[in-house]
Amino acid sequence: MKYPKSIKIGYNDYAVVEVPAGNIPGCDGHIEHNPPQITVADDMLPGRAANVLLHEIMHGIYDLHSMDEGSVNTFANGLCVVIRDNPGFAAWLAEHLEK
User: Fold this and answer.
1) Contact at 8 Å (CB) between 41 and 21?
2) Distance from the first to the final alpha carbon of the chain
3) Is the predicted pLDDT of residue 93 greater than 90, yes or no?
4) Which of 49, 55, 68, 93 has the fewest C-beta atoms lying within 10 Å of its C-beta?
5) For the chain, which domains are there?
6) What is the pTM of this model?
7) Is pLDDT at 56 greater than 80 in this prediction?
8) Could you tell me the CA-to-CA distances from 41 to 30, 37, 78 in Å, in that order?
C-alpha cells in the first residue's frame, strides 16, 4: 500500500509509517504525538487501510481539542483543515475507499 509520507494535523506533521502486521498490538493503526507519527499495519486491504489512516487522523484531531457540544464543529473543522493542508489526501482516500 502506498500511503502519504506525512499528514499535517494542527501544527504537527505526522510521519506515516507502515509496519509488519502484528507489530501494533491489538489494532491496525496507532498515533504518537512525540515524535509525531502514525503507524499502520501492512496487511490491510485498501478500503480498510484508508479507514484506519482516517481513524488515526481523527485521534490526532481529538487529542488537540476537547470534545463537548462544540466538539462536532471542532471535529468537522479539524478534518476539513487536515484535508485542506494535505493536497491529494482526499483523492487518495476516495480512491482507496472505492476498492
Assistant:
1) yes
2) 12
3) no
4) 68
5) 6-97 (3.30.2010)
6) 0.77
7) yes
8) 9, 13, 25
- Return the C-alpha cell found at 6: 506525512
DSSP letter at 49 equals H
Q: How far apart are CA 72 and CA 78, in angstroms?
A: 10
Give the integer Cα–Cα distance in Å for 18 and 6: 12
Provide the pLDDT for residue 43.
94
Residue 86: pLDDT band by 50, 70, 90 thresholds? very high
Contact 23/44 with Cβ under 8 angstroms?
A: no
| DSSP percent split of the chain into helix, strand, coil, nearest 5 | 45, 25, 35
Q: Mean per-residue pLDDT for 29-43?
A: 95
Q: Return d(Cα 95, Cα 35) in angstroms, integer.
A: 29
Q: Are the C-beta atoms of 47 and 26 separated by less than 8 Å?
A: no
Q: Looking at per-residue confidence, does 96 or 71 come out higher?
A: 96
